[in-house]
Amino acid sequence: MITETLIASLTQKLGQEHVITDENELTYYSQDVFSEANKPLAVIRPGNKKELAESIGMVTEHDIAILPRGGGMSYTSGYLSNRQSVMVDMCRMTDIIEINLEDMYVTVEAGCRWVDLYEALKDKNVKTPMWGTLSGLKASIGGGASQNSVFFGSGQNGAMSDSIIGMEVVTSNGKIVTTGSGAIENGTPFFRHFGPDLTGLFTGDTGALGVKATLTLKLVPDRPEKRFVSFNFDDHSGMLKAIADVARENLASECFGFDPFLQQQRMKRESLAKDIKTLGKVIGSEKGFTSKLKSAAEVVIAGRDYMKETSFSFHAVVSEMTDVQADKHLNRIREIANLHGGIEVANSIPKIIHAHPFVPLNNMIGPEGERWVPV
Description:
35% helix
């Protein structure tokens, strides 16, 4: 009876199309990429922070748990539960609220995807320090904060939590808490520390301590000089030592490795048509005509065959303000890799990932029926 009354109240608040109770739909929402849990009683889709706060207050008043869901790209059970629950799907709260180039911050709704923020900023010569995950075509910024995600930009700027200045978070009683300098009356959210660091409290919590409504991230100038380099290692030990040394010296904006199984799977995943499309992205990302031709030629000549002989591969992207600094860091990475037994190979992988960062999601099942995680 409580459930029926609650569903009716939520439907009245949000509209029937934004309260999901269909059993098949609930089964879908009870899974992430890797795991499955109990189905929620319902899934709600608030359209703004007022609806979000009021809906959460209505649910928790009945002692029912709230499960916030971003883009659904988790494979850590971050939004799954075996408790009686209502899931909050943030898919309608996707606005980029403010891009402030004077005080260097951007404020977004928590359901905004990484790819949308990337597109909004790319012609302004700024970006957030950590600027997305590989799954950013679907993954949300709020989800990244809840999982404390890493990838693009993390080599020099750390995890997602290090890029956040402040948030608006809905707590279990339906109240909105503002963290950082945005909490000052008539203030702006340009600075993280206004009293105790409440922002940090709500990062990496998978939404357990509150549901993120908006997030403000710092902006930094885009570093225009890029360098790309890849190495093959015979074993994981040398590769990991090289990655650790590169990170320790703060040399690369992105720094990552593939084990032999993963990289062979990745080579299976893309068709020739995708290769041609990606080549166009690589060409477009270069600044001058000569650079465009050179990059295209390097990718074409390397093809995919070179990866067949690769064991543990290590890839790095150098991003700096000047040619001199970029070349200096590139050469130091080469020294480190050689010290740990790395042999330089074609740099197609970091070059392609940089040019086309938010690629279509991969299949969950491989050509031989194997399970592919992450996607």
